[in-house]
Amino acid sequence: MKFFCDPKTLMHSISIVQKAVSSKSTLPILKGIYLEAFDKNLRLVGTDMEIGIDHIMGANIIEEGSIVVDARLFSEIIRRLPDSEVEVSLQNNNQLLIKCASTEFNILSYNSSEFPELPEIEEEQTHEISQELFKSMIRQTVFATAQDEARPILTGVLMEIEDDTLNMVALDGYRVALRKGKIEAHLNNKVVIPGKTLNEVNRIIGGEEDEKVQISLTNNHALFTVGNTKLISRLLEGEFINYKQILPKEFKSRIKVNAKHLLDSIERASLLGKEGRNNLVKFIITDENMIINSNSELGNVHEEIKIELEGEDLQIAFNSKYFIDALKVIDDETVYLEFTTNLSPGIIKPITNDNTIYLVLPVRLASY
Amino acid sequence: MKFFCDPKTLMHSISIVQKAVSSKSTLPILKGIYLEAFDKNLRLVGTDMEIGIDHIMGANIIEEGSIVVDARLFSEIIRRLPDSEVEVSLQNNNQLLIKCASTEFNILSYNSSEFPELPEIEEEQTHEISQELFKSMIRQTVFATAQDEARPILTGVLMEIEDDTLNMVALDGYRVALRKGKIEAHLNNKVVIPGKTLNEVNRIIGGEEDEKVQISLTNNHALFTVGNTKLISRLLEGEFINYKQILPKEFKSRIKVNAKHLLDSIERASLLGKEGRNNLVKFIITDENMIINSNSELGNVHEEIKIELEGEDLQIAFNSKYFIDALKVIDDETVYLEFTTNLSPGIIKPITNDNTIYLVLPVRLASY
């Protein structure tokens, strides 16, 4: 194997696949990046056996071939090379020679035959979605996945394809995030993608409005294709919770409020609720006015926000974190908060559409 | 106590004094910021009993007085206030009321009489030095202080005032950093300032070329005055090593080399020397050419740099970290490296002056 390329381009490619490389694996080869020189291309692959990333870049190939090289060392070397064409070639003794200007590295390489192959995914039946839309759908749901592994299925995001609509849903037992978006679908389908996978997909997507992400699904795997990069992930097994049953159909109080003002107020109120007691903040909702209270042994805080109330007055308390997380990812200026009683879930959603819905369970207070 | 002020200005002042506040103290009052409203000013003081920072800002004082408030909570509150004038006032129940737009905080405060007083320093006999110069002198020496407390005196920087020259010296047993600069001195003096103190002084100094830092020294303390901010620190006790004896008076080989190229090459070479063996890099110096080698079980690296050699060829090895640290803070484009034998210290210095000198001890190699 021997090729020439620009070190900056190579570094960019390494940084794409490196995120899938396991730094903690006990198998040295899994700490490596697979390099394959073929035609006029260099393929780079990294995998931790859960996620695999495959990226192709242009290179001046002198001799085809493939090897595996330690990801961390390779990336540190390439990052620090002078700004001049780099030559990478496999030597007789299985060492990889990296030559650039008057710098020469010889580093250990592994035989590529020991590198695990990524699963083959049929790419004929793919769904297509705008990069920009998919990026925002990930951002607006993945934060609500469960962080602990007690119920593994909840660490993932449900992707439910119904005709030309993609529903993405995450929930952790205390809240639900639902985001609907338009997809060019091939077949209806329903899979649960690990949250970690979607974070990596999000990182790879440039976010161009006109560019597409191709999504191919099998029984066990999902393949996301973004330009020259393919990300393959296993799916989470098990039945996802029937989220549609959880979403309330009606409300007794509906508030219209500026999302940024509400976020700022809850963030300030949460400063005093931090130490234990579930980051508790209390909403006292009356006509045209919402008071947000929080108190702890450190002191108390009182916030007032202008609102438009439709329906009944209400006092209700929440874990501030769940409201903050949702308000941070809502792009709309104004939102509705919908409540039924102070013991039933609250809803946060944009006033302009039903594409985004956040549900948060309240905290029962000793006295109101 | 009661005052009005701009929350952004207050936040800036808090961030200045907060660095001296001990976050780990078992005494709650030392986790606090002392606030004193007087005349048209608000004074803020933070101290961990080693360093004290005293800062004065303008404020609209309604009622004079002083209290102490938890630094972390106070700064988090002020940082998140709306962009509107804030009112701060002490209530009857010893609670501090913070009011801004429709936000109201009531937080616990401490009696200011329990707050430790900073030592009084006579400010009549002060030295003056340019902010810009002092900032660069700190940056170019403090990194070479010892990081472990085995010999506490080496965790500080010697400040030696000799007529109109300030010599700043740091050493840790493996290297020396010496920087000379012009000072308007009052009296010759010699003190050792904790490295941590100088890092804080560096942070406070804006670096304006025309502005000065005032330095007042007593037997036990140093006072640095930068505009409205005073930083008081204890001095380190003990005798500093006689660094003048350590600096070699002559050399057998002198190399002229581009500092950036040398730094880049040593940084690349150090990638392979990292795992154990003291980050060893080897210099092979011959006429017009210097080869930098490093190797480990991961592989080897070979770098070549153009140099101008005056004197004898030499092979010598160093801990790359010490060379990298020094080359990173040298502002000059070209440096001299001076060597005598491969067992005696190497010198790094700018070619234009003797104001900056770095000494590094070599590592003895088994074979050359």
From TrEMBL, chains A, B:
UniProtKB keywords: Cytoplasm, DNA replication, DNA-binding, DNA-directed DNA polymerase, Nucleotidyltransferase, Transferase
CDD domains: beta_clamp
Residue ranges of domain DNA polymerase III beta sliding clamp central in the record: 128-240
Keyword Methyltransferase: no
GO molecular function: DNA-directed DNA polymerase activity
Keyword Secreted appears in the UniProt entry: no
Principal localisation: cytoplasm
Span of domain DNA polymerase III beta sliding clamp C-terminal: 244-364
Pfam annotation, one family: DNA_pol3_beta_2
Positions of the DNA polymerase III beta sliding clamp N-terminal domain: 1-119
Compartments it resides in: Cytoplasm
Similarity annotation: Belongs to the beta sliding clamp family.
Assembly information from the UniProt record: Forms a ring-shaped head-to-tail homodimer around DNA.
Function as written in the Swiss-Prot or TrEMBL entry: Confers DNA tethering and processivity to DNA polymerases and other proteins. Acts as a clamp, forming a ring around DNA (a reaction catalyzed by the clamp-loading complex) which diffuses in an ATP-independent manner freely and bidirectionally along dsDNA. Initially characterized for its ability to contact the catalytic subunit of DNA polymerase III (Pol III), a complex, multichain enzyme responsible for most of the replicative synthesis in bacteria; Pol III exhibits 3'-5' exonuclease proofreading activity.
Name this polypeptide is given: Beta sliding clamp
Organism in which the protein naturally occurs: Alkaliphilus flagellatus
